[in-house]
Design brief:
Blueprint: H1 3-16, H2 19-28, H3 32-45, H4 50-76, H5 80-97, H6 107-124, H7 127-130, H8 133-143, H9 153-174, H10 182-192, E1 216-226, H11 233-244, E2 256-295, E3 298-335, E4 338-355, E5 367-368, H12 374-401, H13 409-420, H14 429-439, H15 444-453
Parallel strand pairs: 1-2
Antiparallel strand pairs: 2-3, 3-4, 4-5
């Protein structure tokens, strides 16, 4: 068998291998993570297969041990933050696999958790955590179940200190509470419920939430576009609303409206001409050639017929028509006193051709084409305009709430940053800076826990 055949055979065998077979191959190579991936797939194929269940458990044990060796090395050199982060990553894996929060699957695991505990206590007492009581609270709440088998006297002392610092922190925050900044007051109540021994965050119903009520729930339209048929104006509104509703402007419980003033014109021009077309095609032709032959020992030229493929060009005329819709549309709208203008200067061009030519060798047959309907062309124009409006809506929201410095400390910044949070995550970096500046939270898990604690996410 040649090399190509051998490789193809290997590919075929691998393709035919079961998930369990692939898991075993990776186990032999000590690719524990990849093996685990295939054990999980194999378990879906056959949930009661004891061999697969045991294989998956063994892969999980090896993955855990690999991470515990890394953890031991971090603990030895005193890298407490990295050690704590790795322990949490391992704990998340265990929860994903269905283990209990404080479960240690080996004596080696138990030993590393014991060794981590004093480093954790020292870490939680460092200035980076002490000056941010909410950050302390999140980390202690996260790790208390992991250290459940240990003497938690120190943890209880730390929690008492967190509560004291948290109450001082909240006392400062409450000084900025006023009816003029209603969402700041709402946010302070969410933060401070942690240190007031409230059983859960003081949530407000959407209809009563002053932040959400500040958003628009609908838009009103004043449309004056020449060339746009009256029957298509509802289509324009539909396009605009579908895009606008996907921006932070709109919320079902909002109390305000946005007024769009849309003006401009759409003109149509059609041009017809006779156009020359050429199409290459291949034709077989017979030609005469001469070959050397010998007659009575003498060389002579003999004429013979031969065939060859040649390229020919067929020329013909068609009637070509071009229709162009030229649009110059402008929309003006308002957000919090700021006016934004969206303009669309665009051309929707469509060219068709018609002819009655028939020439089969070149594959040419009569063509009969029609322009798209007027409503189809208008739909394309309106969709483009609505897309531009959405971009401008988000840009205005971004400029209003996400750009510039964090104004006036926590009190003033809260109003802006919680609206900044409503933009897609790729655009709300200023909100994340606010969370880090005032709460010391920068890691994704910390921010996620913060938002759950505040009742901002489920």
């Amino acid at each position: 068998m040649n090399l190509v055949g051998y490789l193809l055979a290997l590919v075929f065998l691998f393709a035919c291998a079961s998930n369990a077979d692939r898991a075993k191959e990776h186990m032999e190579k000590e690719n524990w993570e990849k093996a685990h991936e295939y054990w999980v797939k194999a378990l879906k194929d056959n949930p009661n297969d004891e061999e697969v269940i045991e294989g998956k458990r063994e892969a999980e044990f090896e993955i855990t041990n690999k991470k515990l060796v890394q953890l031991r090395n971090l603990i030895k050199v005193g890298k407490s933050q990295q050690a704590v982060d790795l322990t949490w990553d391992l704990n998340k894996l265990h929860m994903k696999w269905g283990y209990s929060s404080g479960h240690n699957i080996s004596a080696f695991h138990d030993k590393q958790i014991n060794a981590l505990y004093p480093l954790f206590v020292r870490l939680i007492k460092t200035e980076n955590y002490v000056k941010h009581p909410l950050k302390q609270y999140i980390l202690v709440s996260r790790f208390e179940p992991i250290f459940v088998k240990r003497n938690l006297t120190q943890i209880r002392e730390i929690k008492a200190g967190i509560e004291g610092r948290g109450k001082k922190f909240c006392s400062t925050l409450r000084k900025g509470v006023s009816s003029r900044r209603p969402f700041h007051a709402d946010m302070v109540s969410r933060v401070c419920h942690v240190f007031d021994h409230a059983s859960e965050v003081q949530k407000t119903e959407d209809r009563q939430n002053p932040f959400l009520k500040s958003l628009a729930s609908r838009a009103t339209y004043q449309i004056n576009i020449g060339g746009l048929p009256a029957e298509l104006r509802d289509n324009l509104i539909s396009h605009m609303m579908s895009k606008a509703e996907s921006t932070p402007y709109f919320n079902a419980v909002g109390a305000k409206n946005i007024k769009f003033e849309i003006s401009g014109g759409i003109s149509r021009k059609t041009k017809a001409r006779t156009a020359l077309r050429q199409k290459d095609y291949t034709k077989t032709e017979t030609y005469k050639d001469y070959e050397d032959v010998y007659v009575d020992g003498k060389k002579q030229k003999k004429a013979v017929k031969k065939k060859r493929e040649v390229t020919k060009t067929y020329t013909y005329y068609v009637n070509e028509s071009t229709r162009t819709y030229t649009s110059n549309i402008k929309a003006k709208f308002n957000l919090g006193g700021r006016t934004q203008i969206v303009t669309l200067t665009d051309r929707d061009v469509q060219t068709i051709e018609n002819h009655m030519n028939t020439f089969r060798p070149a594959g040419i047959f009569p063509v009969s084409e029609e322009f798209d309907s007027k409503s189809q062309a208008m739909e394309r124009i309106m969709a483009k305009f609505a897309d531009k409006a959405k971009i401008q809506l988000e840009a205005l929201w971004d400029r209003t709430y996400c750009l510039g410095d964090l104004p006036g400390g926590f009190t003033y910044a809260t109003e802006k940053m919680m609206k900044c949070r409503m933009l897609p995550k790729s655009k709300n970096q200023k909100y994340l800076l606010w969370v880090e500046t005032f709460f010391g939270l920068s890691h994704k898990d910390d921010v996620d826990d913060f938002e759950k604690l505040m009742g901002l996410t489920s």
